[in-house]
Every structure is written in C-alpha cells, then in structure tokens.
Amino acid sequence: MNHSVIRVEKLTRRFGENIAVNDLSLEVQAGEVFGFLGHNGAGKTTTVRLLNGVLEAHSGSMRVLDLDPLNDGPSLRARTGVLTESASVENRLTARDNLLIYADLFSLPHEKISARVSELLDFFGLSKYADEKMEAFSTGMRQRLALARTLLHDPEVLFLDEPTAGLDPVAANQVNELIANLSEEKGRTVFLCTHNLVEAQKLCDRVAVMEHGKLAAIGTPKDLMQQYVRRLDVDIEVSPEQVDVALNALSSASPLTQGLPRHVNGNLTLTIPSRDVIPALVSLLVKKGIRVYHIAAHQPSLEDVYFALHGEKEAVQ
Amino acid sequence: MNWRAIFAIVRKDLKIVLQNKGVLIPTIMVPLILFGIIPWLSALAPSMVNMGGTSLDEIATLIEQMPIGLRTELAPYTLEQQTIVFFLVYMLAPMFLIIPLMVASVIAADSFAGERERRTLESLLYTPTSDRELFIAKLISSWLAAIVVALAGFLLYIVMANAAAWPTMGMIFFPNWMWIVLVLWVSPAAAGLGLGTMVLVSARAQGFQDAYQTGGAVVIPVLLLMFGQLSGAMYFSTWIVFFIGLILWVIDVALIWFGSRIFRRGRLIARL
C-alpha cells in the first residue's frame, strides 16, 4: 500500500526580502517518481535543501521518511541520496577514491564496499578510468560519477537535480532507465528536479510546477494537460492547388480557430481551442469545396502545461 | 560521534592537500630551510663573524645585553659555544612556532575556504554527519598535519643542530627542557591559533588564496616574540614558554568556540 514518504505543509523559507519557498504543501508517495519543475530561482533547490535538513524553514512543517529533517538530519541523510545541480566531485582524487570516501561517510559495511564501488563504476562505464584523477574527466563523466556516489548507499529517497545535464543522449537514456527501474523494481522514491519536460513527462508519475517559490500546479502529467492546455495545434493536408483557398477560409473561421493559420511545408497548421471543433472545421472546408486528405491533432505535452502556466515569454527566458 | 565519517573526511582533506602544490611546497620547504640549512649557517657563525671583520667580542656584547636568566644558562659554555647555543637554542625557538602555525593555516584555508571554492562542500553537507562532526573532522585534518610536520621538523632540527655544532660543542647539547615544552605544549597551541583564525577568516573569504592571505596576519605574534628576544626584552625560559603556550591555548578555545558557532549547515549553504 502506498504511503507518503515526503509530507510538506505550508513550508516557507526566506532569504532577506526574497521568499524562496512560499507556503508550499505537497505529498510524495513511496515508489513514486515525482517531478519538481520550475524555472531557475523557482525554489526547487531550496526545497531539496529544506527536505534534507541542510537548511532551516521559517515556518511550516515537513516529514521525510517519517523523520523531522532538521532534528533528525544525520539519520535522514543516511537514507536519502542527493545529486546536486553542479556535479561536485573532488577533482584532485581518483574516481574510486571519491566513492570510497563517501562509502565511509555513509557507513557502508566494510566487506561490501569494494564490490559496490566496482559495480557502480562498471554500471556508469567508468571502470577503465577508476584510478585516474577526476581533473582529466569530461563533464559527462563527472556527472556519472556524482550519480554513482548518490546511489552508493542505496538510498530510499533520491533527490536528483538535473541528473542528465551534460550527458550524451545514450548516457542520458541509460540514466532515465535507471530512474524508472529504481522506482518500478526497487520501490525507491525519486524527487526529480528538472527543466527537461520531455524527460519529466516520460518518467514522472506526478509533477509539481513551482513559480516564484509557490506551487503553481500539481498532478499527473495527463491531469495537468487536461486542466491547463486549453488549445491544440492541428495539421491539415489539403489539395496543393487549394492551399490559398483553405488559408482564406480558415483565417475567418473564428471562434473555431485561435489566431491565423500557418502554411508550413505544404501543410496548414492552426491552433484550435479543443478537439471538439475538428468536425466543424472539416465540414467548413468541405462546404467550400476543398479536398481534405488528412487532419492530425498534436498531442499536448508537459511543455504545453509549463508554457501555459508560466506564459511563453517567461518560459523562453 | 560518527568517528568513521570523521576520519573519512580527514583522509579526504589530507589526500587533497597532498595534491595541492600551493599547499605542499611551503609545507615542505619552510621546515627544510629553517631546520635543515639554518643550523649549519648558525654553527658556522663563530668563524663567519671573524671572517666578516668583526669579532666574537661583538657577540659577547650582544649576549651581555640579554636578561640575566639567559646569561646564567649560557655561563657554563665557552664564548664560541655560547654563540652557537644563543642562536640555535634561543633565537630560533620563536621561529619554530611558524611551522605549526603556517601548516595549520594553509591546510585549514584549503579545507574550509578551498572546499567551498571547489564547490564540493554541498555534497558533504548532504552526508549523514552532524555539523559538529563535520567541524571536528575539518579541525583534525589541519591540526594533525601541523603537528606531524612540526614533530618531523623538530626531529630534523635535533639531528642537524647537533651535527652542525659538533665540531664546536663536542657533545649533544640539543634539545633542552625549554624546547621540549615548546614542541609538545606550545606548538600544538600555535597550530590551533592558525587553525582557529583560518576558520573565522574562511567564513567570509572568497576562496583558498583570499583566506590564506587574510589569515597570514596570524604570524605577527610570533614575529613580536622574535624581536622581543633579539632586543633583550625577554628570553625563552622554560616558564615563559609554558605561559606563552597557556595564553595560546586560551585564545584557541575562544577561536574554536566562535568557529563552531559559524560552522552551521544553514549558514554554509546560504553562502554557496
């Protein structure tokens, strides 16, 4: 049965005049991949710091794994793993030493350290470079080692801040598969801070969108799309010689359409308020004698939700 | 107290320091020059002053201006031997304190300010250690290294001073009780002074270099002791050395107490 591993109620943290986290309430269930989305400065990193007892809240309450992060910090951090945004590994040490030191810091049983370190180095493709100093490593290699270090003690809750940043597509895919496996097969909870909305949509059971420290939306990606995406793009393929006639007809089809139709690569693309208007649009074109060969609606994405919440201008920034 | 985690951090800090040439070179070179080369120069002093057109009488005049306690301690020796004992035992004693002070300062700057500069501090804050354990680990790594280097420097100095002075002294004259107190009681306190100062300085410094340069002022008390002795205003008797140690330990306790108040996760992470 599912139970909450993270429970936050009315959490607030300020830095001077700036409210980094403002009255945040949310719950994360065991085994869930929970996406935590938002632009830079939205309060994602501050929330992770609060949830791990590294930073003190000004008001509100929180429990992680049934522990109070501030009073039970060391016990809690023994059961969580945090990958910070800047994959900060010790450049002057070897990859193996980086892991061996953290194995002691997380009190791994001595007899298991060597096998666990080798297993992770192998999984992340770093075995060949295990005894080389990190200063010669690429950003992607550092990121992989930081991830290995985060997983070293097999934490129950993982806080991952942009885990695929700096990785090539193959390595990023491998990390995404790992996150899915950790949740599905091992029942681990993943709190995923990311800007990568495609990844979030693919991986997350639920997502929360933060805006200026406040929770702007929370739910499954599907729920959020239904709730927030109030317009849809459709591609219409008509007879090539009738494109101009179709453009004219669609330009004056408001309120069936939103804005003007676009002519891209032989196709007409237009924005409509919902799927429900598609039959009326087809009927309008047919009545004008236009031959319609194909019509396809774009599936809404988490990106559409994000843009809808933040406004396109802000999202681009 | 999670000692396993504490010693993991100590091991990490010391391994990192050993890779940093900016830390390693002064840590090795200063003791080598002070205790490997200066004893030979000082042992040659009696013959060198004659070559320089002056005479041992001038050294005798200098010694005459020293406090009565020092003159009493030098009395059993010949004038040539007095010159050697005066330089190697008394004049170099305050300089010895520079070693633990410098080593502790430079390693603490790397461990506290350097860790933040390298952006590796945040990961360390997410480990299951308490603030106190992290702070103790950071203190131990700098303090331990300073004590080891100071002891190694002292052993080197015992060998070099006796070897260099053998033709004149004809006996093993070093160390005396004052030096034993200096090494075992005062030098750990001097290391604590460097360390405690650097903890406070690092809280505001931008990085390793900034912390080390700002904290460099900590050698001023040692320079004052050197000039105090050279001018004849005081000399390093066993009791004076003991009291210098006592004062330093009191200052250390105050600095470490203030440092522990600053070294809090919340404060550290807010500055990252």
What do you see in this structure?
The complex is a heterodimer of chains A (317) and B (272). With 317 residues, chain A is α/β, with parallel strands linked by helices. Chain A contains twelve helices and 13 strands. Chain A has helices at 44-51, 73-77, 95-105, 110-123, 139-151, 169-184, 197-203, 221-228, 243-251, 278-287, 302-310, 312-316, and strands at 4-15, 18-29, 33-37, 59-64, 80-83, 157-161, 189-194, 206-211, 214-219, 232-238, 258-264, 267-272, 292-297. In chain A, the strands form three sheets. In chain A, strands 5-6-7-3-8-9 form a six-stranded mixed beta sheet, with helices on both faces. The model of chain A has no long low-confidence stretch (mean pLDDT 87). Chain B has 272 residues and is an all-alpha fold. Chain B has helices at 3-19, 21-43, 45-51, 56-64, 68-74, 79-91, 93-96, 98-117, 121-125, 131-169, 177-202, 208-215, 220-230, 238-262, 265-270. The two termini of chain B are 26 Å apart. At the A-B interface, helix 2 and helix 3 of A face helix 1, helix 9 and helix 15 of B.
Strand line-up of the largest beta sheet of chain A? 5-6-7-3-8-9
Q: Can you tell me the residue ranges of chain B where pLDDT is under 50 for at least 5 consecutive residues?
A: none
Oligomer: heterodimer
Q: Structural class of the helix and strand makeup of chain A?
A: alpha/beta
Tally of DSSP helical segments of chain B: 15
Strand content of chain A: 25-35%
Q: Count all strands of chain A and give the number.
A: 13
Report the uncertain regions of chain A: none
Helix percentage of chain A: 25-40%
- The helix count of chain A comes to 12
State the major sheet of chain B: none
**What is the percent of helical residues of chain B?**
over 70%
Largest interface: A-B, 33 and 30 residues
Distance between the termini of chain A: 42 Å
Distance between the termini of chain B: 26 Å
Overall mean pLDDT score of chain B?
85
Shape of chain A: elongated
Radius of gyration of chain A: 24 Å
Following the backbone from N to C, one meets helices and strands of chain A in this order, namely: EEEHEHEHHHEHEHEEHEHEEHEHH
Q: Structural class, from helix and strand content of chain B?
A: mainly alpha
